[in-house]
């Protein structure tokens, strides 16, 4: 029994589409994000890396090998690290066929292209995946966000969609927060220790980060409520099963992470 249902958000958790609708289209491509938007996702999630010529691109891995045809196009450039390729080279790659030939021609997106395709329709949650691998990446992200007005003044005018910057790298996320304190942050940590952290730890976290991540299988509604009582929001780890998604909703999480935004929205619709 998860105790009384505590709804941090009366409409139920906000749905974050993990790498886009990544069970229905090749992750982190225009196809995956357009499907997520069509499925009603409230937020588009993606991971950031940086090219050799310093451009932020949306890709989960630090190499191009798994999600593009880079080994065919550049056979002698192993291990095909993103950091060793220019944007022009990366733009020659097919980021869809690996998943399904029907998606041939999908490309790796730049951060700017990702913002543009979203066109304000949903929130955005870029993750600084490995900031220590990419010199200047955190400053680069802060500069790009400032350039496009993803700061509180435009949000105050409701003209910039909500954005959360997330990372497993606490130092990198703290550095980002110091550069652009008005942009909400989500601190990720494998093992999700935050949900049972001490009052002191939660009090300190709440001085700088907006949200922390939890795993609904390990948490209870009262643990979620306790973390929220320190002024922190709680994001669930990625779940795709309807029963786990409804557990996330019943435990009062603020946001739910899923590869299947259509399933999550259906679960929330019949609460
Ligand atoms: O961004 C949170 C979640 O995506 C962490 O897992 O490896 O899919 O980025 P990963
Ligand atoms: Ca991620």
UniProtKB/TrEMBL annotation:
The keyword Hydrolase applies. GO terms for molecular function: glycerophosphodiester phosphodiesterase activity. Its EC number is 3.1.4.46. Keywords: Hydrolase, Signal. It comes from the Bacteria. Residues 1-28 are annotated as: Disordered. Residues 13-268 form the GP-PDE domain. One of its GO terms (biological process) is lipid metabolic process. This is Glycerophosphoryl diester phosphodiesterase.
């Amino acid at each position: 029994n998860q105790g009384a249902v505590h709804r941090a958000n009366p409409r139920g958790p906000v749905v974050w589409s993990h790498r886009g609708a990544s069970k229905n289209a090749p992750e982190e491509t225009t196809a995956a994000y357009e499907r997520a938007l069509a499925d009603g996702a409230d937020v588009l999630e993606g991971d950031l890396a940086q090219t050799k010529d310093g451009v932020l691109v949306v890709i989960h891995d630090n190499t191009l090998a798994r999600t593009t045809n880079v080994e065919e196009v550049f056979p002698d450039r192993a291990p095909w690290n993103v950091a060793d390729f220019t944007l022009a080279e990366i733009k020659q790659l097919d980021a869809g066929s690996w998943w399904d030939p029907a998606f041939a021609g999908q490309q790796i997106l730049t951060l700017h292209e990702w913002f543009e395709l979203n066109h304000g329709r949903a929130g955005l949650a870029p993750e600084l995946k490995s900031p220590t691998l990419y010199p200047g990446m955190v400053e680069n992200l802060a500069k790009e966000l400032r350039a496009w007005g993803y700061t509180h003044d435009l949000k105050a005018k409701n003209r910039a969609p909500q954005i959360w910057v997330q990372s497993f790298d606490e130092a990198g996320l703290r550095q980002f927060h110091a550069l652009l304190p008005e942009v909400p942050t989500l601190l990720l940590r494998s093992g999700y220790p935050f949900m049972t952290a001490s009052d002191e730890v939660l009090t300190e976290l709440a001085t700088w980060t907006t949200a922390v991540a939890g795993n609904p299988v390990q948490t209870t509604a009262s643990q979620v409520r306790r973390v929220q009582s320190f002024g922190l929001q709680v994001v669930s780890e990625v779940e795709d099963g309807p029963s786990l998604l409804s557990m996330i909703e019943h435990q009062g999480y603020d946001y739910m992470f899923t590869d299947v935004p259509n399933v999550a929205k259906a679960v929330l619709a019949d609460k």
